[in-house]
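Contributing new complexes? Match this layout with iron/sulfur cluster.
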Amino acid sequence: MRSATLPADHDVRNDWSVAEVHTLFTLPFNDLLFRSHALHRRHFDPNAVQVSTLLSIKTGACPEDCKYCPQSARYRTGLKAEKLMRVEEVVAQAERARDSGATRFCMGAAYRSPRDQDLEQIIGMVKAVRALGMETCATLGMLTQAQAQKLADAGLDYYNHNIDTSAEYYGEIITTRCFQDRLDTLRHVRNTGMHVCCGGIIGMGESVPDRAAMLHTLATLPEHPESVPINRLVQVEGTPLSGRADVDPFDFIRVIAVARILMPRSHVRLSAGRAQMSDEMQALAFFAGANSIFYGEKLLTTENSQQSADRRLFARLGIHAEPHAAVDGHAQVNAAAEEHEQRRAAT
Ligand code: SAM
Ligand code: DTB
Ligand code: SF4
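Output block (do not edit by hand):
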């Protein structure tokens, strides 16, 4: 372990080797969690979790063939397709989310890539949601450099674009685009200075080396994504991936812990799949380093944990919602972690 006297910036590396990441996955569970939790405390208030709400602003009828996704037009899941929402409807939903305690609002659209005329409408949403004082995130599929720039100019804080799995396993899950397409969009987003939100899905039949390779790709990008969603596959009947055995909960927690160690200053989000997790499993995920959740009745098209259950869980664990990091997410979060350490030292 690194010495506690080293500056916290020393923990941030972009030169991880695949072998190092593999080694982390083979650590005994307690050793891995001890290490990830220690790092988590150095960089964040360990009792604060960011609360984010998701909204599907354009649902279903997607031309892509992602085998996990209920929104692909190729699978019969019974999902009703819906056109791009109007700006006023989106703002009303964002207000509701803000009033129930969310500080961040993520708008998702089932596109391979957005049409320029739709992007104009979405830009209207970004501006209006930002005006409510919320952090904004959008996930709209592949973007050209010019499209990414338009979103950045509109003030979008984060763009979500997941790599989902390893480069090696990608072709087993999606055939209508390739891994490099994802990396290209991520580069376009990064070039604009927007924050990057990028993670993946666990439970699609991938191997542990695939999980290690996925996290290795994220942790060796020129800059770590500021937000790293780790989804547990939500199995939707009619999609090719439904009916699989669930991932072992401890194996899922290992992914959270390794993500925390590799990207110590990023928010690691315990994303899809919480509705199927016990409170104990979620508590372990927070201990391992997860510090962001989706809060609200729905994810995009599937059920999320009940809001009342989340409020009870936070109260039982003494967790509070992280305040909105308006200007520089990292700087504010580090300040919060320092404050927490001072409070702890004083008691
Ligand atoms: N169409 C855009 C794209 O693919 O980038 C944006 C929306 S897409 C639904 C956003 C992400 O949701 C996917 O990259 C995937 O990681 C996640 N996702 C979709 N279906 C899921 C499922 N059944 N279980 C877990 N995560 C899922
Ligand atoms: C992410 O990584 N997970 C979210 C968000 N980013 C867009 C989406 C989860 C979707 C789960 C399946 C559904 O509700 O359709
Ligand atoms: Fe379309 Fe995105 Fe679903 Fe893939 S994950 S089918 S691109 S909505």
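Reviewers usually confirm one structural detail per submission. For this one: The pocket of S-adenosylmethionine (ligand 1) is lined by residues 68-69, 71, 108, 110-111, 139, 141, 161-162, 164, 201, 231, 233-234, 236, 272, 300 (CB under 6 Å).
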